[in-house]
Amino acid sequence: MAVKKFVVGSFDDEAVLFPAVKKVRAAGYRIHDVYTPFPVHGLDHALGLRETSLHTAGFIYGITGTTTALSFMSWIFTTDWPLNIGGKPHFPLPAFIPITFELTVLFSAVGMVMTFMYLCQMAPFVKKHIFHPRQTDDLFVMAIELTEKTRAEEVKAFLDSVGAKEINEQTAETGWWLGRWDREDKLFSKPAEPVNA
Amino acid sequence: MKDQFVVPARLKTTSYVLLGIGLLTLLIGLFAFSGEHGATRFWAGLLQNSTFFLMVVLASTFFIAATTLAHGGWQIGFRRVPEAIAMAVPALGVILLVLLGFLIFGNKGHVFHWIHPEGDRILEGKAPFLNPSFVSIASVITIGAWIALTMKIRKMSIEEDSWTMTPNLGKSLLWRNSVWCAVFIVVYALSIGSTTPWIWLMSIDAHWFSTMYSWYTFASTWVSGLSLIVLFVIYLKGQGYLTWVNDEHIHDLGKFIFAFSIFWAYLWFSQYMLIWYANMPEETVYFQPRVWGAWRSVFFLNLIINFVFPLLIFMKRSTKRNYTVVTFTAAIVIFGHWLDFYQMVMPGTVGGLHFPWYELGIGLGFVGLIILITGNQLAKAPLAPKNHPYMKESIIHHT
């Protein structure tokens, strides 16, 4: 990952946020992400995000679990260690179904959580840059990435015109890192301005 | 906005043709099935179809009741559709009552063996429950309560169209709907969730019993009922009505069909596995003709088209939003559960496996009757319950 420059605008109303997202996209700026305190219906469409393929991954993990359970149990009970259990056949399919079901659910659930964590770059002890401390409280925070073709002043003026309440410029690491928030000065060469500045 | 449904001539013709096929099959059956064995098939086919289609249309009332009690708003946009389907309950209920009268008091066919328990220790032991007077009184009370509550819920909904709304009136609308739906849920749970499938269907194999049976029957008819609702909603959309109902609503109905197909399979397996594991002759007697006898193909076909098929098709988001795929799957699911009832009723009555031309013909007749009644009822009231406080929530519904 790389350290990039951002212009960050905060909105206090989702009714302002939606038209702002549309205008910013129409103006051609690159939105890094929008952080909201709660799930906002339709924001993913407004941002033009593609549909997630997490469910496809879930299906693949699920059938992997099914196959694992069925083949492992069949191998044990027919080849490796056949046992006579209550006079049932050595391949008692109905008795395998609950375990197969459990393993299917287990594989797909654990697999999907891991995939989700990977896609969102989240893990225990891992740190990510926070654009605004109130982004999980009561502000909708939009981070616009600065490229060589965009000037910070221009983006700031544009965000102001679409109704942002607080606007500042930040340099931040986009990926995750291990370490401590207070010791990573190089990642915050221009720290977020205090909330009540 | 086209709000008033007018029954198209084509729908009317279709329903009359299907009804005609049903009556013709009934007439052919009356002459074709002679002797004691033939008579059994004649009556068993009628019992299978009338119980199945009655419970399927009743599932529409349950849909309204359950979503109302859950304070659901998304279904209000097409609420008139399940209401109209449910108005077939009176007609189908009366048909089933007349049929049960023939079966129990007319002693037609050999469908209910428990009518004559003399000399059979097991049936004598069950006689306090399985006897003509108890079964007939329970059936009359159950069907009577279903008809009365279904008509009450429909009547309230139409009444509300002429109200001049105030916030307080909106609250009282929700309250009285909740009260009557709660009453219906209790009646429904006590009837279809426990005794009703025992006395109408499980008592065919009177020596056998399963506590899963009622839930299994419920799951079967509930998922078919949902399929019927989605078929009518898509039909109305195709005719240019219900413009405020969109992909989101169809998607949610598709999720319901998907989920309850899995629920049905869960009950199917729970019933099967416990009996398979315990392996007691008094219990396995039910599965003997189905798994190892002539019915093997029907039994497993039933599992494939009611579980594997909707599971794989409705797993993807885009298929639940494609009207053609949803229509196709819903129709297959209804046929699948009809087949489920077929294999529940026939091995204990007719015995052998025949090509079900007679049962299918009678089934088409019932489908025609349901289309006829639903069409007429849809035309009786505006398609939008405009005074319902949740109408807006339904229009802006987003999944």
Short descriptors:
heterodimer; A: 197 residues; alpha+beta; Alpha-Beta Plaits; four-stranded antiparallel sheet; two-stranded antiparallel sheet; 5 helices; 42% helix; 17% strand; elongated; B: 399 residues; mainly alpha; 0% strand; globular
What does this structure look like?
The complex is a heterodimer of chains A (197) and B (399). With 197 residues, chain A is an alpha+beta fold. Chain A folds into 2 domains: 3-51 and 123-188, 2-Layer Sandwich (Alpha-Beta Plaits); 54-119, no CATH class. Helices cover 42% and strands 17% of the residues of chain A. Chain A is built from 5 helices and 6 strands, in the order βαβαααββαββ. Chain A has helices spanning 14-26, 43-47, 54-80, 93-119, 152-161; strands spanning 3-11, 30-35, 126-127, 140-145, 166-173, 177-178. In chain A, helix 3 packs antiparallel against helix 4. Chain A is elongated, with a radius of gyration of 25 Å. The model of chain A has no long low-confidence stretch (mean pLDDT 87). With 399 residues, chain B is mostly helical. Chain B has one domain. Chain B has helices spanning 9-32, 35-69, 80-86, 89-104, 121-126, 132-160, 167-200, 213-238, 247-278, 281-284, 288-292, 296-313, 317-320, 323-349, 357-380, 391-395. In chain B, helix 2 (35-69) packs across helix 8 (213-238). Chain B is globular and about 65 Å long. The model of chain B has no long low-confidence stretch (mean pLDDT 93). At the A-B interface, helix 4 of A face helix 9 of B.
